[in-house]
Amino acid sequence: MKNVTDSFVSLGHWPSAGSFGFNTDILATNPINLSVVLGVLIFFGKGVLSDLLDNRKQRILNAIRNSEELRGGAIEQLEKARARLRKVKMEADQYRVNGYSEIERERLNLINSTYNTLEQLENYKNETIHFEQQRAINQVRQRVFQQALQGALGTLNTCLNNELHLRTISANIDMLGAMNERTD
């Protein structure tokens, strides 16, 4: 933090006060560069991100609507099954002597299968909603990561010149040589 304040304090002490110059102290300029990059990312990425989220929200809402329609169809089937159950009950009264237990089993199987179908449809709806939410979150994460990576690469490419690049490589080679000497 001292380097940042020193770079601002030293602005008044430049020998060429009337001309334009570059601050080559990379530690002092990084916070400024990072704040500019983050500001640009937030400004331009906000619209893209909100569009992606709105599109994903519409897809999820469509999936919910489809699930609700399926649920409505299942309820309609349940009503038909109940009507059939009432019919079966009337027939059961007629055939009680011949096979009351068989009819009762059919009624229970019908009710169980209907409730199982409703549970499966409800589970499918919940899984679909969860899956769509996860997919939306993953897509947004990937998009933000890609944009941040592109911004960082752009910043690195604009900040590194050949001399600085060669000095960085030389320093890294020296560090590797020092590490090899320690291990020997």
TrEMBL record:
A Pfam family it matches: ATP-synt_B
Residue ranges spanning the membrane: these are 32-49
GO MF terms, alphabetically ordered? proton-transporting ATP synthase activity, rotational mechanism
Keywords attached to this entry:
ATP synthesis, CF(0), Chloroplast, Hydrogen ion transport, Ion transport, Membrane, Plastid, Thylakoid, Transmembrane, Transmembrane helix, Transport
Its annotated compartments are: Membrane; Plastid, Chloroplast thylakoid membrane
Top-level division of the source organism's lineage: Eukaryota
Q: How does it sit in the membrane?
A: Single-pass membrane protein
Keyword Transmembrane carried by entry: yes
Please give the GO cellular component terms listed in this UniProt entry.
Answer: chloroplast thylakoid membrane; proton-transporting ATP synthase complex
Q: Which InterPro entries match?
A: ATP_synth_b/b'su_bac/chlpt
Q: Quaternary arrangement and interactors, per the entry?
A: F-type ATPases have 2 components, F(1) - the catalytic core - and F(0) - the membrane proton channel. F(1) has five subunits: alpha(3), beta(3), gamma(1), delta(1), epsilon(1). F(0) has four main subunits: a(1), b(1), b'(1) and c(10-14). The alpha and beta chains form an alternating ring which encloses part of the gamma chain. F(1) is attached to F(0) by a central stalk formed by the gamma and epsilon chains, while a peripheral stalk is formed by the delta, b and b' chains.
Q: Which PANTHER family match?
A: ATP SYNTHASE SUBUNIT B, CHLOROPLASTIC (PTHR34264:SF3)
Family, per the entry?
Answer: Belongs to the ATPase B chain family.
Main function: F(1)F(0) ATP synthase produces ATP from ADP in the presence of a proton or sodium gradient. F-type ATPases consist of two structural domains, F(1) containing the extramembraneous catalytic core and F(0) containing the membrane proton channel, linked together by a central stalk and a peripheral stalk. During catalysis, ATP synthesis in the catalytic domain of F(1) is coupled via a rotary mechanism of the central stalk subunits to proton translocation.
Q: What else is known?
A: In plastids the F-type ATPase is also known as CF(1)CF(0).
Write down what this protein is called.
ATP synthase subunit b, chloroplastic
Q: Which organism is it from?
A: Morina longifolia (Whorlflower)
